[in-house]
Design a protein that fits this description.
2 domains; 41% helix; Aldehyde Dehydrogenase, Chain A, domain 1; four-stranded antiparallel sheet; GPR_dom (chains A, B); alpha/beta; NADP (chains A, B); oxidoreductase (chains A, B); globular; Aldehyde Dehydrogenase, Chain A, domain 2; homodimer; proline biosynthesis (chains A, B)
């Protein structure tokens, strides 16, 4: 089934301990979990210098190995990043408790009361590259939501991650959360074996490149929260406000080109192309964006031709493919064919066209007259982002703490048995009660 | 990755048509989808005799092949079953619309409004054994929730399923739903290939034996709604009402022994075993239940000894394993080790013990002083049951129409771009609006 190795007895033992600690954590109060996060934040503050020194060892190693400068930038933990990460933990502590929400409350019959309550998932497995700040963020999200976490960072951040986890453990000793709730894996074999720990790990969260996510999705039966691709589109309708369209296109492409919610393809209605493109091309040139056009848009000023591969490429860079379409249906068909169901937007002043687009595009986010860059848990007001999911089933789109909880049905009776309802001695009332 | 064959061009073409029809259906009104169901019900009523005749051909074939009598009973479609199935479709039509619920409504900033709306999944793949009534039920659930369905029934019901689908298609011609929204596969190769149609099928629903579900789960990357095992426990605490405990145990085991929510194991606190068992044993004997006990319960009157396999066996029959435990923690440990996270119950009059159990058991359903047989979508008041899920992530437990929908984020702006919020020119308001 998978290429992953079988988990070693030691990994199984450790994951079992993490699971038991998580079960204990699941029964703690909101205040206790909040206090655990504050204790971690305080420990990080106290040991900030030590963490930065540990990180410097990783950085030196990375420089010696002449790793990519973008990777080194992500790896680096300076005072500012540490202060932000610690502030982030305090913000997660301040979020509303995701546990023990009563989502349903139904009287099935007199004295037979059904509740649906939010509960933690159990244990999450988190596999990430570079960024050692991810350890702090994930640890706080997991504990806030009553979950254990088994973490595996990139090799280049080994020392940083180990020092951070040691400090987080130190902090947790001043809380009611067992230190074994957070466990760090150190070898690649362990992280591969983690993907086979179906009975002990409930969710895998990959943080890293599309290649990493794709590899993980192909090698585990455990549910994966994440997305391999972010091919987002912006469609500029014939009834668009031209200045607004250019501003939105520019923001969607250039504000953070390597983000998954940046656009890769611009679709333009043929009736507006000859007015829009002569204005848009110089603006995008001034932002160093390389435009790659279909034959029609190349007749309107785009120099470089797009090929078939362009429509399904996530550039993650200052490159944008452009296509002229004869009508909205062709735009919808293009998005349906090449999109990754992440986030797609339309610019139009026509309400009917807008609604047709918003109803027809089968993506996690469908936007009207705004930038695709809003597809983000913080911008949506969730206070945290566990990941962005492009799967069809919930959770979908940007996922906050909600992605780390599930629910349980609790039914309380007074000797109720099913045969009474089958024989007709008793009848269900199915009365909704206040949640 | 899987043993399933690649989908044929014909299957891909057909699934694409079903997906397109489903997209069209997704945009229809509640009334239109209700009318589609009523049109199917009317067509079935009109063609009832023809369906029963078709079913008789399958039945004769099954008798010639001397198939199991329980299978023949499930295969048989008589007038009564048809009337019930048609009534079922009308009930599904009358359920509240699962689509276009506004689950979230947030003002991100002035004129930048985020909604989360429930939407159909797209296309569901349904693989079922015997029961041709499943075609009618699944068809109605799928269309009610705006989804297409690709169905594959057991070989023994080939004619029945084909006749039913033909009649459903006839009905749909009197509605706005395309007939191609419902597609029936006829060969085993096609149903195996269906499991590889990741880009066209959003959810697989298996209806049948544990073996079928296990096979499907191991051979697809498409999410599967279902459960392979239902090993449910009842724990009788030392402070249980003895008569209530026996009544609940009896109902949980015997009311429908082959159901997944029937109990397989009874755990009894050692302090109550010597009083409970001498009363329980004759009652269970009178219901022809074979008890298999651990060594201690065998000293208290149970004749047959249980072996290690018994604790992890779903008998689906009138057999019950019994174990005496020294305390609730041992009961919890047993359930944790052998359970399938389906439904587990406790009988006790002690509230602290009850809450410890309800908080600690990590199953989709945790029950106090009532039968495990209540774990059912109809009994929960959902009006329909798509399946029962034992996975950790939602949807979990009995799943109604909710299991056939997902959601989409719709964001409407007036030229809003992300860089304004990064530069600080604008601030998010994140104001909750009425849902």
């Amino acid at each position: 089934m998978t290429t992953s190795p079988n988990p070693s007895p030691d990994l199984i033992r450790q994951a079992t301990i993490t699971r038991q600690s998580a079960k204990k954590l699941a029964r703690t109060s909101n205040q206790e979990r909040q206090q655990s996060l504050l204790a971690m934040a305080a420990a990080l503050e106290q040991s900030m210098e030590g963490i930065i020194k540990g990180n410097e060892i990783d950085l030196k190693q990375a420089e010696n190995q002449t790793l990519q400068s973008s990777l080194i930038a992500r790896l680096k933990l300076d005072r500012e990043k540490m202060i932000n990460a610690i502030e982030g933990i305090r913000q997660v502590a301040a979020l509303p408790d995701p546990l023990n929400h009563r989502q349903l409350h139904i009287e099935l019959d007199e004295d037979l009361i059904l509740e649906r309550l939010s509960t933690p998932l159990g244990v999450v497995g988190v596999i990430f590259e570079a960024r050692p700040d991810a350890v702090m963020q994930i640890a706080s999200l997991a504990i806030r939501s009553g979950n254990g976490a088994i973490l595996k960072g990139g090799r280049e951040a080994t020392i940083s991650n180990q020092v951070i986890l040691k400090v987080l453990h130190q902090g947790l000793t001043y809380s009611c959360t067992d230190v074994s709730t957070l466990h760090l894996l150190t070898t690649r074999e362990e992280s591969l074996a983690l993907l086979n720990l179906e009975s002990l790990v409930d969710l895998i969260i990959p943080r890293g490149s599309n290649q990493l996510v794709r590899f993980i999705k192909s090698n585990t039966k455990i549910p994966v929260l994440g997305h391999a691709d972010g091919i987002c589109h912006l469609y500029i309708d014939q009834e668009a406000n031209i200045d607004q369209a250019i501003t939105i296109a520019l923001d969607s492409k250039t504000q953070h080109p390597s983000a998954c919610n940046a656009i890769e393809t611009l679709l333009i209605h043929e009736k507006i192309g000859h007015v829009l493109l002569p204005k848009l091309i110089p603006v995008f040139e001034s932002y160093n964006v390389e435009l790659r056009g279909d034959p029609t848009s190349c007749t309107l000023g785009i120099i470089k031709q797009a090929n078939e591969n362009d429509w399904s490429t996530e550039y993650s860079d200052l490159i944008l493919s452009v296509k002229i379409v004869p009508n909205i249906n062709e735009a919808l068909a293009h998005i349906n064919k090449y999109g990754s169901r992440h986030t797609d937007a339309i610019v139009t002043d026509n309400l009917t066209t807008a609604n047709l687009f918003l109803d027809s595009v089968d993506s996690a986010g469908v936007y009207l007259n705004c930038s695709t860059r809003f597809a983000d848990g913080f911008r949506y007001g969730f206070g945290a982002e566990v990941g962005i999911s492009t799967q069809t089933l919930p959770p979908r789109g940007p996922v906050g703490l909600e992605g780390l909880v599930t629910y349980r049905y609790v039914l309380r009776g007074k000797g109720h048995i099913s045969s009474d309802y089958i024989s007709g001695v008793r009848q269900f009332t199915h009365r909704s009660l206040a949640v």
